[in-house]
Predict the structure.
Amino acid sequence: MNYRHHFHAGNFADVMKHALLVRLITALGRKEKGFLYLDTHAGRGSYDLAAAAQGDSLARAPEYPNGIGRLWARADLPAELADYVALVKAFDRERSNAGEAPRFYPGSPWIARRLARPQDRLVLCEKHPEEFELLDIELARQPRVSVQERDGYGALKAMLPPPEKRALVLMDPPFEAHDEFARMVSAVGAGLARLPGGVYALWYPLTERARVDAFFDGLLELKLPPTLFLELTVAGEASALKMKGCGLVVLNPPWQFDREAGPMLAWLAKVLAQENGAGSRCRWLVPE
């Protein structure tokens, strides 16, 4: 695997994904009983945004100014987004950034750890050796956190059903393999067979609509519970941008999650737009 997320950390896709993750974890925390948070492609856990301007050999334009950078100083954040931005700012300050612009950005493992309660448990999977080593340094000594160097897709068979009988599974692969969508569908099927009531959140890029539609068709061949999909685009179909947007499929979304997420994404589409044609969608793939 050659993908390195630190070149993209804090971009519009991270904003969308992590803002929704905060809402999902917050919703699951409304019930007293603990839950398992399973991150199948956890990455390194935290990111120095200064490294985003450094490619493998050449300087590159960082992506975070068009993501978290656009939210950093705003005073008109919707309530659904304010919690996410406050969490990122607190993480940035704790890493000793005294500047006005963001410098340190938390990945999904740290976001989940910050929101987890004593009764909740985290399992973080990362297959890439270098990324795993950094993740292990970041989070392995945190209470009720297990960091594992393994294929995250297989973790659904190994970890589900959990003793807690409740779980949130985040599946956020690098999309380097040609069969990534098919592997996601297979893993979701294995997860549903073991924990039908679990919450499964599946991130995907919007590069070719046909591939996403085929992904949806594959999911619909499973016996799906209520399933919602949410999409954010920063440019229209005619744009030359390679990734015009991204989406999140959520199986068994918490009660009224769509009513929180829909307006939040509509607001983000206006603020994060890079070209004409930006927008958002929040629709049921399988109705409640």
Notes: The first strand starts at residue 36 and ends at 39.
